[in-house]
Design a protein that fits this description.
With 217 residues, the protein is of the alpha/beta class. The protein has a single domain, classed as 3-Layer(aba) Sandwich (Rossmann fold), CATH 3.40.50. Helix content is 47%, strand content 14%. The strands form two sheets. It has a five-stranded parallel beta sheet, with helices on both faces. A two-stranded antiparallel ribbon has the order 5-6. Strand 5 and strand 6 form a beta hairpin. The N and C termini lie close together (11 Å). Bound molecules: BIS(adenosine)-5'-pentaphosphate (AP5) and zinc ion. The site of BIS(adenosine)-5'-pentaphosphate has 37 residues, from helix 1, helix 2, helix 3, helix 6 and strand 6.
Length: 217
């Protein structure tokens, strides 16, 4: 099964991706996590991406498309994968189509902008695994520490309010048009058109997980 989770920054893509990945045994492919790993490792890609990410902009389509094409060739993707944070521009979605990568489901997790700002200020992450927590809504068992490794949690550099607002603007301008893109694909009767579903992303993590599972089952 091949799934795209679409949604604004902070909509809960990473949180839900972790749960779906466990349930269906398919890997989560988060371009954000891959880029953060590259920044941390100081690779040439990381050096190019660092400033753009900290400012809340988008890394170039060419770099992202190359990164994803290489990733999906790995053997753990043989039974499918879950894209989290990709595609996020029309050229990225077109590149997938042109490469013949068919997608079964596009699921949009819908959360209003005001809610996003509050969510992201309380987010804490385990850098090595990408596991995500929230100080109030999804708290770790031990404050400030990852549930599985016990290692310290950190705040992302792009979670400051000003940068979050910039990321939201970028989302509305460049990523939200993908809704129309995928809906048109289905309306045109394209045989590779995925099933498009929008779910309400406000509510408990568990209630959203249930909505996602009912779409995918
Ligand atoms: P990326 O890492 O993809 O960030 P994003 O899309 O901005 O999304 P987030 O990770 O912020 O949010 P999320 O939806 O995963 O929410 P989460 O589950 O963490 O990208 C980062 C940067 O990399 C981009 O800005 C760009 O520069 C670059 N980049 C990445 N991909 C790219 C691409 N394809 N092209 C170009 N550039 C790219 O949840 C958020 C918080 O809310 C957490 O604290 C969580 O615990 C909490 N929460 C989750 N669910 C709920 C709930 N139901 N109720 C209350 N709180 C909740
Ligand atoms: Zn994420």
């Amino acid at each position: 099964m091949r799934v795209i989770l679409l949604g604004a920054p902070g909509a809960g893509k990473g949180t839900q991706a972790q749960l779906i990945m466990e349930k269906f045994g398919i890997p989560q492919i988060s371009t954000g996590d891959m880029l953060r790993a590259a920044v941390k490792a100081g690779t040439p890609l990381g050096l190019q991406a660092k400033g753009i990410m900290e400012a809340g902009g988008l890394v170039s389509d060419d770099l992202i498309i190359a990164l994803v094409k290489e990733r999906i060739l790995q053997s753990d993707c043989n039974n499918g994968f879950l894209f989290d944070g990709f595609p996020r521009t029309i050229p990225q979605a077109e590149a997938l189509l042109e490469a013949g990568v068919s997608i079964d489901h596009v699921i949009e997790i819908d959360v209003a902008d005001e809610e996003i700002v509050a969510r992201l200020s309380g987010r804490r992450v385990h850098e090595a695994s990408g596991r995500v927590y929230h100080i109030l809504h999804n708290a770790p068992k031990v404050e400030g520490h990852d549930d599985i490794t016990g290692e310290p949690l950190v705040q992302r550099l792009d979670d400051h309010e000003e940068t979050v607002r910039k990321r939201l603007n970028v989302y509305h301008a460049q990523t939200k048009p993908l809704v129309g893109f995928y809906q048109n694909l289905a309306a045109e009767g394209n045989k590779n058109a995925p099933v498009y579903t929008r779910i309400n992303g406000v509510g408990s993590v568990d209630s959203i997980r249930k909505q996602l599972l009912s779409v995918l089952s």
